[in-house]
Amino acid sequence: MKTKIEIGDVFEVKLPDGRKFIQYVANDVSMLNSSVIRSFKKQYAENQKINVEEIVRGDVNFYAHVFLKNGCKLGYWNKIGHTDEIGRLDMLFRDSHDYGKPAIKISEKWYVWKINGPFIDVGKLTDHNQRAEIGVVVPPDSVVHRIQTGKYDFVYPGY
Fold it and tell me: CA 95 to CA 10: how far, in whole Å?
């Protein structure tokens, strides 16, 4: 049976020592029309009762672009509920024109954007742009890795 996925859906990510949750909050046409998710900080025990409304009121750990359906198909997460509360959508994302070039250690070719907004070339990352989320579409297993470790499992140019 195919799972219908809608903005506002909440997904469980099972971890070796509990579980955490992500929520589908937007599609970003600026980045391959990929799904944007927010990952929540709080970890729950496997047998702990959960409430979707409580989960989405929790602190957000990070935002990411991902092909959400692939994560479901591959078993990285499963849908557990839905809420219309999707939080703020004004977060800033960043990417580098150097991404994927192995010789680049520190980029000076950055651009930033907000969901469905235009790319704005900024050159070197300064001030608030340094806090922007990495905006490339991240594989589902890399999202899970960041949930578990706080970092992605791939190399990304510095600033």
Answer: 26
